[in-house]
Amino acid sequence: MNTLGLSIIMKMGCICSKESININGIKYLVKEHLGEGGFSTVDLVENTSTRKLYALKRIKCHSIDDQKIAMQEINYYKKLKHPNIIGLIDSSFKGSADIVVNATSEAFLVLPYYSLGTLHDYLIVKSFAKNYLETKEILRLFSEICQGVKYLHNFNPEPLAHRDLKTSNVCLSQGMVPVLMDLGSCAPAKVQVCGAQDAQKLQDLAAERCSMTYRAPELFHVESYCVIDQRTDIWSLGCIMYALCYFKSPFDVVHERGDSVNLAVISGILPFPEETPFSESIHDFMKFMLQVNPSERPFIDTVIEKLQTLRNEAESVI
């Protein structure tokens, strides 16, 4: 058989071997791999009947505890309904996880597919072009992100915290509308820490599920007796605001150098460029959110009030 014939057969084999997944009676064809995290993978899939594209998140569960965490994430998706928070299209479990060693199950979450990608992707493109966003656009994007966070923080019957806010967890829908995604770290906002064991458990969980360069100082070293609340998200918002201006979290460069992010975070020093198109009031706004002491950090309603003042000032500039 000639090389061309073998090549065609191999290509046909690839096409024929594309994975298909049935979720609650609906068949999806896997088109390509979009990405993965520590606990899940995300694929681009197509509904074979409607030809509509979706993002399929798969969470591998190796235990009953893993299954509970995945189910908690699904339940949050079902409960939370807001234009700046991603919605759940469908979900299911396959396999079974029990006390048997190596038993696994898999959670499947069908989510909207955003062809524009994430805010992280968008900022990378802007960074390569060395093209700063205009102040008005930064404040608009940030305002809509804050509306999603406000919905979480004011949720009834219990306020929630996202706990992993970062530019790669903000999708961009058509019209450049930011949408918060990945509720895998979402949890009740207020955590009462009673003793060293509680502190270590929360610290380990944060190290596992909260991205280092967006993680609040109080989650790097959790005190034995304290209350952690939704202001961990305010710190992350400060890092997102910085990234909207300068393309990365203020602590990404520290991480890339191999230096201690923990020490950089608790230092309270923000590395602003000497030459910048942004006003001192924009820098002050970031500092306002990036207070090392969580008790001095504002709640989301105060952040939004200050943000509105900045938007009004920006609109008045001709």
UniProtKB/TrEMBL annotation:
Domain of life assignment: Eukaryota
GO CC terms of this entry: Golgi apparatus
EC category: transferase
Enzyme Commission numbers on file: 2.7.11.1
Pfam families in the record: Pkinase
Catalytic activity as recorded in UniProt: L-seryl-[protein] + ATP = O-phospho-L-seryl-[protein] + ADP + H(+); L-threonyl-[protein] + ATP = O-phospho-L-threonyl-[protein] + ADP + H(+)
Keywords per UniProt: ATP-binding, Kinase, Nucleotide-binding, Serine/threonine-protein kinase, Transferase
Start and end residues of each Protein kinase domain: 28-310
MF (Gene Ontology): ATP binding; protein serine/threonine kinase activity
Signal peptide: none
InterPro entries assigned to the protein according to its UniProt record, in alphabetical order: Kinase-like_dom_sf, Prot_kinase_dom, Ser/Thr-specific_kinases, Ser/Thr_kinase_AS
Name this polypeptide is given: non-specific serine/threonine protein kinase
Species of provenance: Henosepilachna vigintioctopunctata
